[in-house]
Amino acid sequence: MKKILLSVLALFLSAGLFAQTGNVTFSVNMKADTAFNPKVDSVFVTGDFAGWTQPGTDTALMMIPNSDSTSYSLTVDSVANGVIQYKYFIINNGPDWNQGEWGGDPNRRAFVNGDVTLDNTWANKPFQVTFNVDVTAIKDSIVSSKAAVYLAGDFKNGSVWAMPGSFAPLQLTPNSDTTQFSLTLWLYKGEIQYKNFLVFDSTASWSYGEWDGGDNRVDTLMMTDTLNTVWGDLGFTGIPTNNAVQPNFSFSPNPVHDVLYINNLENASRIDIFNMVGQKVREIRNIDRKKLTIQTGDLNKGVYVISAYGKNSVLKSMKFIKQ
Fold first, then answer.
1. Is the pTM of this model over 0.90?
2. Last residue of some domain: 121, 149, 182?
3. Is residue 313 very low, low, confident or very high in pLDDT (cuts 50, 70, 90)?
């Protein structure tokens, strides 16, 4: 793996200190591009960390193939902490902007908060995910203490579980009456885990999460999405309860057209289905069998959340697409 040192402008902070930096390892799997020919094609990375240097003009930004030329990697030293934007390009006939992963926006975005490795797949385009948390139950405390609300988690785009209050790009913004806080991130398909935290007096801390312990909210992303949760309460993403028997259900097909088949319902007592604005469109109670069939032909096309409630009201939620 090739290492380079790019000149990065240090950001001067109000305290007279310089911004911290991290070494960023870019890695991209090229298998998705069936036309890619490692014998004649090179792979470059560029972005705001390099002043958006035109791909192919600076060999220091040329990525190095692995042994079978299916993945390419490059480590860039001393990138300023924060959010970076970048994109990968194929070069085979001189400098060129025209052979990127896709034309135009969006750029890839990633968190840099110390050393980080970015594992990407060629042409796997990011999409926007908005996190909303309803804090009505603790609004008075937030207002009186001037607390901030932060996300922490594993978002598959760089910084993993940054301490709340230590990484400004993960601070949520309040609405006009401070009953809801929101943050929009650019993320990829797959599972994420996260949790909301309060931060007092701008002091980074793990002490003021929605609940104690290591249980996290879990969600599987498939496309542009809005994740609505309530502070400290069960939501679409669910909150596991320690030592409780959780439903371990599965379903198929996904996407679904007319019929959804649900299995492994031994520990479930109720099934709810919600659309993405939070409206309940199905409710099945008093489940007394291991398998269930739900008619979905009348549902509008889109993304839905299916939630299984077990004993002790433990919730497990997953998403499916109605076509």
1. no
2. 121
3. low
